[in-house]
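Why predict the complex rather than its parts? Because the way molecules touch one another can change local conformation, and only a joint prediction can capture that. The input here totals 700 residues.
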Amino acid sequence: MSNKEKHWEKTRGLMVLTLVIWFVFGYLIFMFGSSLNEGSFLGYPLAYYMCAQGSIIAFVVLIFWFANKQEKIDEEFGFQERGEDD
Amino acid sequence: MFKGNFVQNLPKIYGTYTGGFIVFIILMAIAEQAGMTAKTIGILFVAFTVCIYAFIGYLSRTVQVDAYYVAGRQVPTVFNGMATAADWMSGASFVAMAGGIYFGGYTYMAFLVGWTGGYVLVSSLLAPYLRKFGCYTVPDFIGTRYGGNLARFCAVVVLSLASFTYVTAQINATGTIASRALGIPFEAGVWVGLISILLCSMLGGMRAVTWTQVAQYIVLIIAYLIPIFWIGSKMGNPFPHLMLGDEVARLGDLEAQFGLVKNSAADIKSAGVPGGLKSIAVAHSAVPDGGMAAWKFISLALCMMVGTASLPHILMRYFTTPSVKAARKSVAWSLFFIAILYTSAPMLATLSKLSLMDPTLATGIIGKPIADVMSIEWVNQWVNVKQAFIADFNGDGILQLNEWFMRGDVVVLSTPEVAGLPYVISGLVAAGGMAAAMSTADGLILAIANALSHDVYYKIIDPKADVRKRLLVARALLIVIGAAGAYIASMRITSILGAVAWAFDFAMSGLFFPLILGVWWKRATREGAIAGMIAGLATGTAWLVYVYPKFMDQKWLVDATGIDHLRFGIPGAIVCLVVMVVVSLMTKEPDSATQKMVDEVRIPSGKTILGKQH
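Output of the joint prediction:
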């Protein structure tokens, strides 16, 4: 397998993992909204909290984490950009 | 004062600007104490901010193609994040979102999840690859990846349809705010709004829009947060985001006490409630039971997320970063800046709902005698302009929860007055709403005009046109599209044109799969992409026409599937995917040059696929 193929395989793996986490915070938890709401966080009902703040914060953290991970993958295979002007 | 180049000085420039804006707010507050009228303050706020945006637009003028289309690809990550946030958060987000939560509670908050989660798709599936491609517009990518003018043209059609649906609502919002703040008729307000919008974008294209959007973000976020923290402190919660748990629980108790009554359509009609006004009939934080309710929540979030990742005015913001790496980081910053406002909207809704509903608070109106409520100044004011309404259904002279009607926008616009904040805050909120609506309208009009000038005029009609002619056409189109949007807005038929959500569904139906498969599936062919775009858009549109109450109103399909006119992107995108895959597999696989191009797109290093100027 060439360097490019290996790089793409890892990139794809990271993409799938990212989308799995996205699915959990965007959909999976809201499929169980009514039971989730019996729990609470900071005094808010949990399902309400997750759509008011929880999932949104999770998405922000997820994208920062994804960007750093992908940079590492690019560096590992020597595909990072050189200089700011190419 | 400023050493080094423009980009290095950005933090200083915008720091100075923010400081200047805060000084302006303080000056206005002093002027209010000195006896300046509310009307003058409103005019000064809107006029002052619009003049600054126009000045930035003038300073950013350019005669270069790559500056006009992609801001010279030198916008740093954090600033691009702010610009995207302003581009993204429309007049609707600013003015209507808290109102939506106020009336819709948990059910409405599917929009919050949907309008943020889409950025995960943007960063992991699209933005870095489109940046590496080096395109000027979204159809530029479709046209080059799949080849041929027909694919390019189909993408332009989907883009124009989705963006135009969105832009009339934005011009409508600028018109509403301008007419209220300046005290002019709505029709005139729309044209004032349009001129302000064009002043920002005409001379400098993307470069001007970028730097005005950063300025607009700063204004809108200050204008949104100050009232929330102020009211929160007044009610004993200086950090509302962390401290409103008890208030949310209290709302649940009050809902039980007053009862959530859904008024019948006949009652509403006979009482003469003006159109667009609503009463609270849905629980604030309780989750409705049943699989269908959960599906409705999830399907709405899905449409908004996938739509986000297909809307060209958002994707094109990531063409402006200096590198692929910067494009990825910039998506993260965008969502960070968006989240500041989105996580605040439910807090604002909670605070203003409680201040109206809690009879133990001085501001409460529910459960009090109607005669007393009518004599409150702000109630009177909003009732007079038909933005609020009281209907004593049971004739007991006491205001019940289902007897108080209000327009959603009033939640944000009236909060400062309801909570008794000085008028300077209302002026600030007007300037913030104006900034939010203008920045989104600018991005949308530019997306359409750029696609028409670059993809239709330059790539299809006249490939030999010189730079001067290209930019002239681009600017002329900007005016034409803006004027068309303003004309439609001034006819006041936006309620017929439907919801902002439609733009997401249109974009999702036609563009999502052709875009991601272009990067992620080498086997995707031109014929497949064209067939997918046409079939997807046609299916989505047909579904919309079939189920929308003002068109064919076929309720059985909505009852059976849960997919109403806000969610027609789901059937559209599924058909698009299936048709695209089937047709691609039936046709000859893309030639080796195209496959090599896709390989190149997948790695960040090396030159962009399309030249720096093309």
